[in-house]
Amino acid sequence: MTVLQCSCLCSTTFSYSGGPWSLEPLLLGSRTEKVPSDFKAVIQRFYHLQTERVETYRLFEEGHEAYLRTAPQYDFDHYKQLVHEITQAFCGISKEVLEIKRQLHDDFDRPDLSEHIKNLQSKEKQKLELTAKLQLVKQQIQDHPEDESWQEKVQDIKQEIIKNKEALSEIMQDFKYDSEECG
Questions:
Q1: pTM for the predicted model, two decimal places
Q2: pLDDT, mean over the chain
């Protein structure tokens, strides 16, 4: 079993037991840019980072599906590298989002927007934990198809993910409304 931890987003720990995927564009792209100093540019940067998160989740899902296709031997080395790169991408995004949160609060006197980002980060942490949990359960289903209890667990986790995505969407709507109110 390998444990990978992202201390900057959420101290989320990924535990995995058992295709060459790369996140290099995500890892190198946004992290080299400096956080902008004017309000509208900061807001646009935040939206761009949220788009990167969505893309990172998509790559994470695709990578996991490819990993499951390598059963029963499982190409764990490539998957471990993917998880490492995903973790780096999420940590880089999170660090930049937290800097934007600080900037909105301190430089622009917008504690309302800073609070939205705080809530968003909490929900993003939960989403990442649920995604990792779902991936582990999907592997259990594949490894133990005779055990029907795993199917129920998948459905429960998927329901939690749906609720989480709804909460994230609501936070983003509130952020958008509040940022445009005085922007």
A1: 0.80
A2: 85
